[in-house]
Design a protein that fits this description.
mainly alpha
């Protein structure tokens, strides 16, 4: 059951990522590549500021885990680089 919950939350995280890049590239169940260039320009933000927004959106989201009330407080990390090989 733990893997099912993990998969559910992973899908929900990837939906949140679409606010930053509608063309995210999944790189496994718990990783994704985002090109945040357009988001940075539209919102006049640095890459680090966008990373902070992504982490905040994940932390503040309430994720449906299929049992009981939605859960929040999830953490994530963001690797920032000029290309996905380095990130």
């Amino acid at each position: 059951h733990g893997f099912d919950k993990y998969t559910m939350v992973s899908r929900q995280c990837k939906e949140l990522f679409k606010a930053f890049d509608p063309h995210i590239q999944a790189a496994g169940i718990d990783e994704a590549y985002l090109d945040i260039t357009d988001y940075m320009v539209q919102h006049t933000l640095t890459a680090e500021e966008v990373g902070d927004r992504i982490r905040t959106s994940i932390r503040e989201a309430a994720f449906d885990v299929g049992v009981g009330e939605p859960k929040g407080g999830l953490t994530c990390s963001c690797g920032i680089a000029p290309n996905k090989r380095i990130a």
